[in-house]
């Protein structure tokens, strides 16, 4: 299993064409999953999406490949792990953090970009327990929030 300890991620940087292409290939599934997560969290923990509570679903999912602003990537024995920071254009200072996984297409070794296929691994949702015991939830991040390894 790939972990933060076993995968050396690059420093955060502007996306190159291969990352943009990978994101483009999963764009619709990212939008679908984001709206699904919002719907689920709004039932019990609306704080996750409090930063964009006034946005419609259409506005929340109005991003495209040009809104991928930063990436970190690393390889493991399983394939390529790409973490991305995506700007929500309908809101000020609102970003989602996504994780993609790229593996070799069947019948190839995956050594070139056209021999890889990508899947959405997850969209980052964060729950922090403060010293006071209070829980802080978020799925919307700011431009200055670091793009770190995450599982969910």
Portion in helices: 10-25%
Q: How many structural domains does the protein architecture include?
A: 1
Q: Average pLDDT value?
A: 94
Uncertain residue ranges: none
Using only C-alpha atoms, the radius of gyration works out to: 16 Å
Tally the helices: what do you get? 2
Mass-distribution shape:
globular
From the N-terminal CA to the C-terminal CA, the straight-line distance is 15 Å
Kindly state the number of beta strands.
6
List the helices and strands in order: HHEEEEEE
Strand-residue proportion: 25-35%
Structural class determined from secondary elements: alpha+beta
Word description of this protein:
A four-stranded antiparallel β-sheet has the order 1-2-3-4, covered by helices on one side. The chain has a two-stranded antiparallel sheet with strand order 5-6. With 152 residues, it is of the alpha+beta class. It is built from two helices and six strands; from the N terminus they run ααββββββ. It has one domain. The radius of gyration is 16 Å and the shape is globular. A hairpin with a 4-residue loop joins strand 1 and strand 2.
In terms of topology, how is this protein built?
Blueprint: H1 17-44, H2 57-60, E1 68-75, E2 80-87, E3 95-104, E4 116-123, E5 126-129, E6 135-138
């Amino acid at each position: 299993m790939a972990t933060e300890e076993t995968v050396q991620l690059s420093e955060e940087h502007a996306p190159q064409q291969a990352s943009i292409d990978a994101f483009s290939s999963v764009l619709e599934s990212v939008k679908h999953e984001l709206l699904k997560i919002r719907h689920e969290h709004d039932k019990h923990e609306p704080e996750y999406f409090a930063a964009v509570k006034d946005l419609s679903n259409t506005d929340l999912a109005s991003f495209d490949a040009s809104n991928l602003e930063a990436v970190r990537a690393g390889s493991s024995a399983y394939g390529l792990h790409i973490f991305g920071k995506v700007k929500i254009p309908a809101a000020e200072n609102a970003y989602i953090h996504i994780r993609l996984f790229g593996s070799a297409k069947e019948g190839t070794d995956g050594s070139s970009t056209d021999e890889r296929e990508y899947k959405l691994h997850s969209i980052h949702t964060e729950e922090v327990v403060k010293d006071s015991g209070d829980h802080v939830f978020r799925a919307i991040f700011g431009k200055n929030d670091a793009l770190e390894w995450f599982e969910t």
